[in-house]
Specification:
five-stranded antiparallel beta sheet, 12 helices, 57% helix, 432 residues, Immunoglobulin-like, 2 domains, single chain, ABC transporter involved in vitamin B12 uptake, BtuC
Length: 432
């Protein structure tokens, strides 16, 4: 009970901190598109013309900077675009640093991408070559820092989902292919309480985590536990989990629908800049909550009686039972915890992108990659492996197209497992 109070207090404290942030986007924020600000030596540039076209050159929109030097252009479809700054519309004493007035950013679904044009006073042509080099280096490292931050953000979300999957595998041996639907379930429950019942997102999230934990307990109490008592093998249970995943996915489709949705609060907050990193306040707070939950669960596994019992069951269920440990009770606690943490991961994923009934399925492969890379059945291995996967997915877009960004993470998975088959923090198992 004490560990549950500690975990709930940490989670609730983080959510209260989230409430302190701005909940609604200002009118100048776009939900999906491009935006930027033009300044010359700290002063906004008004009236500069910017044209947005598709990658093939089809016109999309033409905009003009306002009195604050800001501009934005919403687009209907995600993808790669070409943004051209009309140099003739700049003040007479201004020029584009490097001379390149074209940018080719990528717009991701439900996000607004920033486009940077660096301006400088005319007459600095004598140092143009050095400035070009400096600008290219600065742009590369700025983008690398931004992608590293986004990689940690994605990695922590994957780690939350992978933690529950790893704990369930460690105590039962079940590779649960329905775990992605547990992630989706948490996001959909929060959406239902938030939008359907008009409850603010923070209490809606708390209620959803509790309900998902109860559903996790019910799954093991009335379904998986019954299969274990009947002597069903882990391979058969794995195949059953695929059927459960399909069943849950299409039940969610019936009740939630096939359209993308968003929460009523915290959908498009204005970004804040911390050094070279630009992100919405909700991203910083969400990462803090995710880290707090991971630390609390890790501490509980190491220090509490139930955590030690769970590790004993994972090592040897028969020996744990002979030592007086109630194995079924421990497994149900793990299922409750796994369902609650998966729901929290779904809520955090829903904050960073739009909600859809396949959102859990889309990251399931990454969850398995994080668990396998870190070491099957180890909680801290799931954290380390998931962070590595998240980082490689995002940072790899510095060199590969965004469509291939998952390839880098899976390549690292293969290379690491060739060198260390048990994973980064896994233990060697004797075969034969």
């Amino acid at each position: 009970m004490r560990r549950a109070v500690i975990a709930f207090t940490a989670f609730l404290g983080g959510l209260i901190f989230l409430l302190a942030g701005p909940a609604h986007a200002g009118p100048a924020d776009c939900e999906q598109g491009l935006r930027g600000t033009l300044k010359l030596q700290g002063q906004p540039v008004n009236g500069a013309k910017i044209a947005v076209t598709t990658e093939s050159g089809q016109p999309v929109k033409e905009v003009t900077t306002n009195a604050q030097g800001a501009w934005e252009a919403e687009v209907d479809d995600p993808g790669k675009y070409k943004v051209t700054l009309d140099a003739a519309s700049l003040p007479q004493n201004a020029e584009i640093r490097g001379g390149n007035n074209v940018r080719t950013p990528t717009v991701y679904e439900g996000n607004c991408s920033a486009v940077l044009f660096a301006l400088q006073p005319k007459g600095a042509a004598g140092q143009q070559q050095q400035q070009d080099t400096d600008a290219a280096d600065s742009s590369f490292w700025t983008r690398a820092a931004q992608l590293t931050f986004e990689g940690f953000n994605l990695g922590l979300i994957i780690a939350l989902a992978a933690l529950g999957l790893s704990l369930i595998y460690g105590t039962t041996g079940l590779t649960n292919f329905a775990h992605g639907e547990l992630v989706t379930l948490g996001a959909v429950l929060a959406y239902g309480f938030n939008v359907g019942f008009g409850i603010h997102l923070i209490p809606a999230a708390v209620i959803s985590v509790i309900v998902a934990g109860a559903l996790g307990y019910g799954q093991d109490r009335f379904f998986w536990g019954q299969l274990r008592r009947r002597g069903t093998g882990v391979i058969a249970m794995m195949i059953i989990s695929i059927g459960v995943a399909l069943f849950m996915r299409y039940v969610l489709l019936i009740f939630f629908g096939g359209e993308n949705e968003a929460y009523a609060q915290y959908t498009a907050q204005p970004g804040i800049e911390v050094g070279p990193i630009s992100a919405a306040p909700k991203n910083f707070v969400a990462m803090g909550i995710e880290l707090a939950v991971l630390v609390v669960v890790g501490f509980a596994l190491l220090r509490t009686r139930t955590g030690k019992a769970a590790r004993a069951v994972a090592d040897n269920p028969a020996l744990a039972a002979s030592s007086g440990i109630n194995v079924d009770r421990v497994i149900r606690i793990i299922w409750t915890l796994g369902g609650a943490i998966a729901a929290l991961a779904g809520i955090m994923l829903g904050l960073s992108q739009n909600l859809k009934y396949t959102m859990g399925q889309e990251i399931l492969l990454l969850i398995f990659a994080g668990v396998t890379l870190g070491g099957l059945g180890t909680a801290f291995g799931a954290l380390v492996g998931s962070l590595v996967v998240g980082l490689f997915i995002q940072v790899s877009t510095l060199w590969v197209p965004p469509e291939l960004k998952s390839v880098g993470a899976l390549a690292v998975l293969i290379i690491v497992l060739l060198v260390r088959p048990q994973g980064i923090l896994g233990r060697r198992e004797r075969i034969g």
